[in-house]
Amino acid sequence: MLNEAAIERVYLARGKTDLRKSIDGLAVIVKESFDLDPFSPCLFVFCNRKKDKLKILHWSNNGFWLYYKRLEEGKFKWPDEGSPVPMKITYRQLRWLLDGLSLDQGDAHKEVKARTIL
């Protein structure tokens, strides 16, 4: 399962990805196209052309997890192509995306980092 505490970063592959690729094919994209380490404690998120399916690649201790979500209706608010560099987002933004929202939620409460308690 996705454990937010164990995840350092979330990367979105902009544009479309051929989701016929499985773990090895997606790991090659992460390594060679993104120049990132697929074994790092990060989530790598990929979406198909129709924007109704996505896969998340995640390394955990001794193997890869491959999460797959298919929408029965609607589409993900996926960022268009424009840069071959993956888009770095927060785990919170990933939750919004999975819930059918856009990555930019202007009305959302801003994150507050606690410093000390008086």
Task: Write the SSE topology.
Layout: E1 9-12, H1 23-33, E2 42-47, E3 53-60, E4 63-70, E5 87-89, H2 91-98
Parallel strand pairs: 1-2
Antiparallel strand pairs: 1-5, 2-3, 3-4
Can you tell me about this structure?
This protein has 118 residues and is of the alpha+beta class. It has one domain. It has two helices and five strands. The chain has helices spanning 23-33, 91-98; strands spanning 9-12, 42-47, 53-60, 63-70, 87-89. Strands 4-3-2-1-5 form a five-stranded mixed β-sheet. Helix 1 links the parallel strand 1 (9-12) and strand 2 (42-47). The longest helix is centred in the N-terminal third of the chain and has 11 residues, at 23-33. The protein starts with 8 loop residues before the first strand and ends in a 20-residue tail after the last helix. The relative contact order is 0.20. The model has no long low-confidence stretch (mean pLDDT 88).
Characteristics of this structure?
single chain; alpha+beta; five-stranded mixed beta sheet; 2 helices
Task: Give the spatial strand order of the biggest sheet.
Answer: 4-3-2-1-5
Mean pLDDT: 88
Please state the CA-atom Rg, rounded to the nearest Å. 15 Å
Bin the helical content: 10-25%
The secondary structure category is alpha+beta
Taking the alpha carbons of the first and last residues, their distance comes to 37 Å
Strand tally is 5
Low-confidence stretches: none
Give the helix tally.
Answer: 2
Cα shape: globular
